[in-house]
Every structure is written in C-alpha cells, then in structure tokens.
Amino acid sequence: MKINFLTYRTMVATILTVGLMTACSSDDSPGDLDPQPDPTDPVEDSRWITIAAAKMGENPGDGNGGTLIYSVSSEDAKDPTVSIEPFDNGFIVPSNRTARLQASEDGSTIFNISYAGDTGGNYTKYTVEGGQNFAPTGSQVSIAQYVGSAPRWIKLFDGDKTGAAVYVSTEHQFDDNGTPEDATDDTYLRTEATMGVVTLDLQNSTIVEYQEQSVGLSPEEEADGYYISRIDMPTLNAAGDKLYIGARLSKVDPATAESDSDGEILGSKTIVLDYPSLLNPTVITSTVGHGNTNGYRSINSFEFEGSVYQANQGDPQGSHILKIGEDNQYDDSYVFNLDQALGVQDAYILAWRPAENGKAVLAYRHAGSAEGVAGEQGFFALVDLKARTAEQITEIPYDPNFYLFQYQGFAVDGTEIYLTQAPVGENGNIYVVDTESGEVTKGAELVNVSGSHFIGAF
Fold it and tell me: Which end of the chain is less enclosed by CB atoms within 10 A, N or C?
C-alpha cells in the first residue's frame, strides 16, 4: 500500500461524505454517529515517526544533494504493506548538504540547523503533521557567527529546551629562532586549540550563552605533537551542571610539524565544561578505551541512570562503550569492549541509541565487513549497558551497499527503537526492535532512488 497523505486525505474525506449521507437517510440521530479521527493525527498510543533521506550529489552515497523528510504514524511504520517515498513526496529540509536533524522526545517536532551554503547555521523547527507536511513554527536564528556555517550541534536531553553547537580551530605554534626568510628554522612548540561553544533556546529561538576558550592537553602530550582537532556531541550530565564534549586527537611530528598518523593512539578523552556558563574546561582521559569520542553524524553519548555512556571510534582494540560517572570522571572499572562482546575484530561503532531500559541498538562495522559502493559498511546489534552484552540482530539483513557512516537518528518510543535499512540506491524497510524482548518487526517499505540513501528515523 503506497502512502501519499494528500491522496489519503481525499480518500478519507470521500468515505466520510458517503457515510454521512447514508447516516442522514437513516433513523440514526447525529448523536448516534461515532466520532471520526482526524486522519492527519496519529491515533491514541501512537506517535509520528519521521524518516530522513539524503539525496545523492555527485557520487552514490555522498548525501550532498539535500535532505528530505517524511512522517508516518508508528502503526504505519510497523506495517510492511505500507510503502513510502520520501524522495518523491518528502519535505525538503533547508540545507546545502546533509541536514543535521533532531527530534523532540515525543516525535511531534523536528529541529534543524542547516549545514553549509548560504543558509548554513540557520536554526529552524517544524511541527510534524504527517506525510510531507511539516509546518514551520517559531522564529529562525543564525548561529553561524558563533560556530560557522557548518556547525556540529546536538539537542541536549533536557526536555527539548536546549541545543548546543561546537567548533574548534587549531594553529601550530613555533619559537622564533628562525629568520623571517626561512621559517623552517623555527622549532615546533605545540598546537593551540581554540574551542567555541554556543547554547540555543530551542523553544524561543534565542542564543543562551557563548564562550570561546583554549582547550589543551598535558604538556607532555602537546610536546609530542598531540592536539584536539575536532569536537562534537555535547552531552549534559544527570545533575545538569556539566557539559561533556567528545574529542578527536591528531598529531604532528614535532621535528617537522608534518602530520604524523603513525603515533601512539592515546586514551579516549572528553572535554568537561561547567554548565550553563560553559566555562572552566578540563580534559578527562580513559585508561580503558583509546581513540576518538566525537562520533560523526549520530549522537555518540547518552545519560542513563546518573552516568553518561559514550562510544569511541578508531580504538586499536575495537570500539568500546565507556562510562563517565557522577563524579565527572571516567569510570575505568566499567569495561565494555565490542570486539569481545560480539566475537569480531576491529569493531567500529557507527551510531547507537539506548532505550529507556538501558538496552540499545548499535550500528557497527568490523574487519569482516564487505566493501560496498560507499565503503565498508555494517551491521546492527542489540546491546545491554548493564550486562555489557551485545548480539548481532540477524533479522535485519546485511548488504555491503547499506551505508551507515552518515547515519543520524534512531526513533525511541519506550523500549522500542525504530531504524531504517536500505542499500544505496535500493529499496529497504523500517525495522522496529523491541529492546526488552529482542523481537524485530519488519515495517514499511522505503522506496529509494538512484545513488541516494536513508539516514535515520526520528
């Protein structure tokens, strides 16, 4: 069954008209008629599920042709006879490249900050009304002057009140032993990393706070050429007084100041800021995990039962889920290694999301992933944060052309998690994972177009 909400509204209106004409010719009184639900609203105990689709730019899977969204009720999302076509019927989200989307906790609102181009850095929000109908609500505001036109941002889990966007700029520093004509005589000292963080009132479309400050590593690490080169995925702690920001480290050879990719991979690091002031940055380091904590397109860390659980990437021992305790330090007694839990090599967490019970759906690749049209792609696993277990979800098909690196969102409804699966340029489906029972439901068909892919459910 192909769903187009304009057609659907016409069909329902026709049925209602015929029904009312029949009712008027009978002995029934108007009070005897059952009330008809508004077809544009989800039924009781339902919510909107918004599907995001990234159109091809120049190369299959690049997602640079823009972003379209389309919403269905959770009942339709679970129905394999339903077919939806976001690329043909979807709402075009303002963004030069792949939009950075977030959803309210109940799915009724979509938040967007445009990425790159003339509108880059513009914040907008929309009320979800079904199908391609997304009604602009509130005013727009630009954060480009604070964090650039291609900001990395996330919605904090504070009741849909606040968003936070971040950036970091770097500059190598040298002594002045060399002559102005020959800077090669200069000696590398360190790399200065300047971090900017802005918080945004999502309801009133106003800037709340902005701070720009230096963020450094230990003197020993900086002397060896290490520095923070990328930051992302700010997460609010349970107490609401600290903001955690994931970090990627890079390294230069101190002798030449040239990039050095062969150096030791340091322990995973996170920047900790006072909140809401965004002041007093410190850097904490894990002794369990190594590699980066900034993630990519999908939220990389989540608060659960007072602690924050964070994925790392590029770990030579395989990705870990790390734990930051209520003392705002890494809890190195918590060891959850995906290689060990899944029985694979070189696990790399691409995206993940826990439900309210601490069980999560996790997208990953590993050394056994095949090379597809857009690189080595991955699988899904069901993860238990408390038990520290992970098991591949075999009901969701694996396809080498299923592109997960740009995956952005999972829709969470209680203990259920909605996700999209479709290879680049091919049709696929919505899948719903009941994290409590492990049951997997194959839902609505996703109709694709050449070179394009789906980037999540919200």
Answer: N
